[in-house]
Design goal:
By secondary structure, the protein is of the alpha/beta class. It has five helices and nine strands; from the N terminus they run H-E-H-H-E-H-H-E-E-E-E-E-E-E. Strands 1, 2, 3, 4, 5, 6, 7, 8 and 9 form a nine-stranded mixed sheet that branches.
Length: 207
């Protein structure tokens, strides 16, 4: 009996810890990152941890390259839009189908997609995270964004985005240093008129 009470107490403590983490992430997004919530609502986090799978090849293949660029551009400009002189850097390496730091680190960059996304946002302070590029973002703070491919979900789509705070590099080079805390979000998207997309909802991932 005593062991059961201890286990229940430990589980309640773990739940409170996950709640505090979700509150911290929401506060960071609202107060520190300059995120926009004009599009979409904040979803409730799941009661347990998110599964490691983000999606699969079939769900990726159901969406076109144009869909991917349109979805990612909306997320950058509507939610992560640079504010207060900040900048946003697009990591050209897509996140994998499974949430795994080792596997994600081995993925090759997609420079053509990153350049196209930068152009699609139409914002001068959205840049590609590329040390060889002479960017308008140099010397600024802000954030680095790494996107998954979008995955078809019913009539819409889901896309995962990982965020790192960006600190001014100074003499270290043209790219900012990636800071902490970092976290991942999932965006639920729906088709809009004219072939576009809109954000339906978003929430932080609980790993």
């Amino acid at each position: 009996m005593r062991g059961g009470r201890v286990a229940q107490s430990a589980e309640r403590g773990a739940q409170r810890g996950r709640q505090r983490l979700r509150v911290l992430r929401s506060a960071l997004c609202a107060l520190s990152l300059g995120c926009r919530t004009a599009r979409g609502i904040v979803e409730d986090a799941p009661p347990e941890r998110d599964a490691p799978a983000r999606g699969d090849a079939a769900a990726r293949a159901a969406l076109t390259r144009d869909d991917e660029l349109a979805i990612d551009a909306v997320i950058v400009t509507r939610f992560f839009r640079p504010s207060g002189g900040q900048a946003r850097w697009i990591d050209p390496r897509p996140l994998g189908d499974v949430r795994d730091s080792v596997a994600d680190a081995r993925i090759d960059p997609d420079d053509a997609w990153a350049d196209a996304l930068r152009a699609a946002t139409g914002h001068p302070r959205v840049c590609v995270y590329d040390a060889d590029a002479d960017e308008a973002c140099a010397g600024r703070e802000g954030g680095v964004l790494r996107f998954s491919h979008p995955y078809a979900a019913g009539d819409g789509a889901r896309t995962f985005v990982r965020w790192w705070p960006a600190r001014r590099a100074g003499a270290e080079g043209p790219l900012p240093a990636r800071g902490q805390p970092t976290f991942e979000m999932v965006f639920t998207m729906a088709r809009a008129g004219g072939g576009g997309w809109r954000i339906v909802s978003q929430r932080a991932i609980t790993p």
